[in-house]
Amino acid sequence: MGRTASARLNTLHQRLDAARLATLRARDGLVHVCGWCRKVRIDEGEWVPAEPALLERAGPTLTHGVCPDCAKAIVRQRSAVA
Questions:
Q1: The pTM is what?
Q2: 56 φ, ψ to 5°?
Q3: Which of 41, 45, 35, 42 minimizes the C-alpha distance to 70?
Q4: I need a labelling partner for 66 at 20 to 30 A (CA). Which of 18, 24, 50, 74 fits?
């Protein structure tokens, strides 16, 4: 791939990441991230994997919680220990 094509592809990736981040912030200005698996909530109840680079660009607008899958796993782990 030539230098021009590579630069154009890089620009498209940056625009796509910016659009994804804008979509994630659209609801309340925060990006909701599961503290265990690092998935992000895109809609109420829908959690999807996020690229680390995208999360790094989110800056101070990240808020942490637990996605439903991780919550179930944590409850199972604690029940097994108890």
A1: 0.60
A2: -65, -35
A3: 35
A4: 18
